[in-house]
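Inverse folding, one chain.
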C-alpha cells in the first residue's frame, strides 16, 4: 500500500511539472528539416521510469503559402487594376502555391501597370530572386522562366503590360514564386500550427525494440508546440520518429536520446528522487516474480524426473528380489 501511495504522489508531481510553461531549460534535441526547425525531447526532464511524461515537439518555419490567393491552377486572383500598387509589397501582385517538380505558375501583368520594375523571389529560398521590367518596349505574349534548384533562367525579364509570365519548376525541390521583397521580419521562422492531423510520432525503446504510435496534440496556448503523453515503463535509450507531411512536404525524421548520442534525456529509474526509502519498481518486481517462477518450474521438472528414476529403481529392485526368491525356492525343491 505504501508503495502504491508513493507512486501516486510522484505521478501527480509529474503532472504538475507538465503544466509548467514550455520555455523551461530542458535538454532537447533540434535540427533543421527542409525549411522547418524541429526541437524535440520529453516534456519533463529528467525523465523518470513509471512517471507520466510526454513527447514535446516544437516546430517553426517559414509562413505557409496556403494563405495566398491562387485559384489552384497557378493563376493569381490579385487585382492589378490600380496603377499605384506597391510593387515591393510582399505578395502584392502575385504569389504562387508550393510548386513541386514539373508544376507551373503563371500571372498576367495588368494593362495599367507600366514603366515599373517588379522584384520577386522564391519564398522557399530567399537567395533565388528576379525582376520583371514592365514597359511598352518589352516582350508581349507568353514569357517563360525556368526554376532550377538555386536559380532562375532567365532571372530578369522585360515585358509589356498584358504579357503572361509562366514559371516552370525544373528542380526536385519545392518553390513558391512571390512578388515583392522579403524584409528581415518576414524571414524569421514562425511557429507552424495545425499539424495534429498530418504528423505522428513513433516512440521506440531501443534495447527491446518495442514501439508505439502516438498522436501529436497541439497546445492551444502555444501554437507550434505539440505533445504526446505516455508513461515510460523501462529505463534506457529512446528514439522518437516524427513522420507525415507539413504543407505538402514529406517528413520522416528520427531523434535519439543521450545514451545513443542524441541531445534529449534517457529514461532513468526514479530512485534518485525517492525518499526516505528506495522503492522497487514494477518492472523489477515483475522480473523477480518471473525469475522465481522459472526456477520453481525447473525444480519441479527435476523433482519429477528424480521421482521417476526412484520409482523405476524400486520396480527393478522388486523384480530382482522376486527373481532371487523364486530361484532359491526352486533350489530347495531340488534338494
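Residues assigned per position:
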Amino acid at each position: 500500500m505504501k508503495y502504491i501511495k508513493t507512486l501516486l504522489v510522484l505521478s501527480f508531481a509529474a503532472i504538475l511539472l507538465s503544466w509548467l510553461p514550455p520555455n523551461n531549460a530542458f535538454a532537447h534535441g533540434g535540427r533543421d528539416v527542409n525549411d522547418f526547425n524541429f526541437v524535440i525531447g520529453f516534456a519533463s526532464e529528467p525523465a523518470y521510469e513509471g512517471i507520466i511524461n510526454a513527447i514535446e515537439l516544437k516546430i517553426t518555419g517559414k509562413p505557409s503559402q496556403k494563405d495566398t490567393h491562387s485559384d489552384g491552377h497557378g493563376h493569381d486572383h490579385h487585382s492589378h487594376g490600380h496603377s499605384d500598387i506597391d510593387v515591393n509589397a510582399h505578395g502584392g501582385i502575385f504569389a504562387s502555391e508550393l510548386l513541386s517538380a514539373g508544376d507551373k505558375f503563371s500571372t498576367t501583368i495588368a494593362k495599367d501597370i507600366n514603366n515599373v520594375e517588379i522584384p520577386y523571389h522564391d519564398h522557399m529560398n530567399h537567395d533565388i530572386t528576379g525582376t520583371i521590367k514592365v514597359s511598352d518596349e518589352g516582350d508581349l505574349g507568353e514569357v517563360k522562366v525556368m526554376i532550377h534548384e538555386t536559380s532562375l533562367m532567365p532571372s530578369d525579364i522585360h515585358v509589356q503590360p498584358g504579357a503572361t509570365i509562366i514559371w516552370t519548376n525544373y528542380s526536385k525541390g519545392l518553390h513558391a514564386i512571390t512578388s515583392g521583397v522579403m524584409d528581415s521580419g518576414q524571414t524569421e521562422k514562425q511557429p507552424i500550427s495545425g499539424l495534429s492531423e498530418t504528423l505522428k510520432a513513433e516512440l521506440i525503446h531501443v534495447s527491446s525494440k518495442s514501439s508505439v504510435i502516438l498522436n501529436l496534440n497541439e497546445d492551444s496556448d502555444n501554437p507550434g508546440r505539440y505533445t504526446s503523453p505516455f508513461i515510460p515503463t523501462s529505463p534506457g535509450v529512446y528514439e522518437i520518429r516524427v513522420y507525415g507531411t507539413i504543407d505538402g512536404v514529406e517528413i520522416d525524421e528520427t531523434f535519439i536520446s543521450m545514451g545513443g548520442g542524441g541531445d534529449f534525456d534517457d529514461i532513468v529509474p526514479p530512485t534518485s528522487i525517492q525518499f526516505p526509502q528506495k522503492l522497487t519498481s514494477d518492472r523489477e518486481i515483475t522480473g523477480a516474480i518471473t525469475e522465481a517462477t522459472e526456477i520453481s518450474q525447473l525444480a519441479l521438472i527435476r523433482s519429477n524426473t528424480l521421482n521417476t528414476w526412484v520409482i523405476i529403481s524400486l520396480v527393478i529392485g522388486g523384480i530382482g528380489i522376486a527373481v532371487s526368491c523364486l530361484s532359491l525356492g526352486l533350489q530347495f525343491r531340488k534338494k
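Residues 282-334 form the longest helix (53 residues). Confidence is low (pLDDT under 50) at residues 6-25, 65-83.
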